[in-house]
Amino acid sequence: MFQDTISLAAMAETLARSADYRVLRRLVPRPLFTPSAGEETKTAIIIDTETTGLDPLRHEIIELGMVKFDYLSDGSIVGVRDVFSAFNEPSEPIPAEITDITGITDEMVAGHRIDDAAVAAFVDASVVICIAHNSAFDRKFVERYWPVFARKAWGCSASEVEWRKHGFAGANLAYLLNGAGYFHQAHRAVDDCHALLEILAHRLPSTGAPALAMLLETARKKTIRVWAEQSPFELKDVLKRRGYRWSDGSDGRPKSWYTDVCEATLDDELAFLRTEIYLKDVEPRLQTLTAFTRFSART
Q1: Could you tell me the sign of the dihedral formed by the alpha carbons of 26, 32, 188, 142, in that order?
Q2: Residues of 145-181 as b/e, b for ≥16 C-beta within 10 angstroms?
Q3: Do 170 and 212 sit in the same domain of this protein?
Q4: Long-range contact list for 251-256, CB < 8 A, 24+ apart?
Q5: Are residues 136 and 256 in the same domain?
Q6: Rounded to whole angstroms, how far apart are CA atoms 294 and 299?
Q7: Which of 157, 159, 164, 289 has its CA 20 to 30 A from that of 211?
C-alpha cells in the first residue's frame, strides 16, 4: 500500500510538470502545530456558518466552523493553532432545501447548543482578524450570537481578492480550490474553513505572494460607502450597472441605492452622481468603513 502511494505521488508529479495536464490533490487538513518561541507571527481565524436561511435577523445558525492559524508579515501561513466545530439546534425544523445544500439534518443537530464561552475563548485577544468567504453574510450572523466578533477586524476572501485578475474562473470556493490544485467533497463548515486556508496559502502567479497577503492589504484600506438617496427611479438600472446595491431600509439603514468605493475614486463617484443621476450639485451621505465595521449589520 505504501509503495502504491509513492507510485501515485510520482505519477502526479510527472503529470504536473507537463503543460498538457493539471493535477488535483485531495485536500488533507493541516495538523495542529506548536508555535516557535520568538517567531513574529499574527493569528487569524477563518469562519464559516451553515444557517437555516439568508436573513440574519430571522434565520438561525445550525453549524459553526472555525480554523485558527498563524501567519507571517508577508502573508505566509505558518500553521494551524486550533479548530472549532459545533452544531446548533434551531427553534424550528431545518428547511428541506437547506438540508439538500448542507447535508445537515434535524437529527444531526438535535440536542446540540454552541457553547458561548467556548466561542469567546476561541476568539481570544490574540486574534487580529476574522476571515470568511462571504463576510457580508457570516459576520452578520455571528455578531448576532456572539458579541466578541463585533470587536474584531474582518476580511472577505470572496470580495477582497481580485481572483479573476489572477487567473481564476471566479470567486466560487470550489473554483478557487481547484485553481490552487485541490479538491474536497465536503460541505461542512469546518471543512470549508480548511479549504479556504489552502486557497489563502496559494501563491498568486502574478505576484508570487500568498493570496492572504492581498486580502490583508485590501482589508487594511478604508472604503467609503456612498448613498444615492432619493435618486430618480427611472435611473435605477444605471446605478445597478455602476455596481450600486439596494438597501430596503428594513435593517435600519437608509432605503436607498449605495456603493462602496476606495478613497482614491471617491471624487469620481461623486462626479458621476452629480452629472448622471441628480443633474445638480449634491452632497450624498457618506460613511467611512474599516475592517472593524465593514460587512457588519451595524453599518
Answers
A1: negative
A2: bbebbbebbbbbbbbbbebeebebeebebbebbebbe
A3: yes
A4: 251/57, 251/297, 253/299, 254/227, 254/229, 254/285, 256/227, 256/228, 256/229, 256/230, 256/231
A5: no
A6: 7
A7: 289
Cell of 5: 502511494
pLDDT at position 66 is 98
Residue at which a domain ends, from 193, 220, 247:
220
pTM of the model: 0.91
Q: Could you say which of 220, 247, 267 is where a domain stops?
A: 220
Residues 213, 200 contacting (CB under 8 angstroms): no
Residue-number span of the structural domain to which 141 is assigned: 2-220
Report the number of distinct structural domains present in the chain: 2
- Looking at the fold, whether 146 and 101 belong to one and the same domain comes out as yes
Band of residue 16 on the pLDDT scale cut at 50, 70, 90: low
